[in-house]
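#onboarding

Welcome to the new folks! Below is a worked example of what a typical request in this channel looks like: someone posts a single protein sequence, and someone else replies with the predicted structure as tokens. Don't worry about understanding the tokens yet, we'll cover that in week two.

Example request:
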Amino acid sequence: MTLTLTPEDRQRLETALEARLAQMSPEERQKFEHAIDQVSDALDNVKATLDTTLAYFSQSLHNIKLRRTLTDDAAEVFGSRKEALAWFTRPNQRLGNRTPLDTLRHENGLFKVRQLLKRAV
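Example response:
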């Protein structure tokens, strides 16, 4: 969500803030500026956390879509989703006796499992 001010509202806000700052003692102004800095830092932290969370969920969604596509491809190769899911959980000699499901958790696992499925066709 983005807060958008009209130019007129922004000008009114700046004028009111400048008037209030002019009334403050140097100590009050210093405390106010310190509080503004803390709020700014907190907002930066929130933004960084939201960016990280969004990236994580975006990657997770991508992985879910890839796995669903892979499962659909396997179901086509083996004739049913049930057989495909069974294949994913059986150790495979071409994968070093690891299951395709376990292989997916490792680097290049998706590529290896896809190649194995292509050979099964």
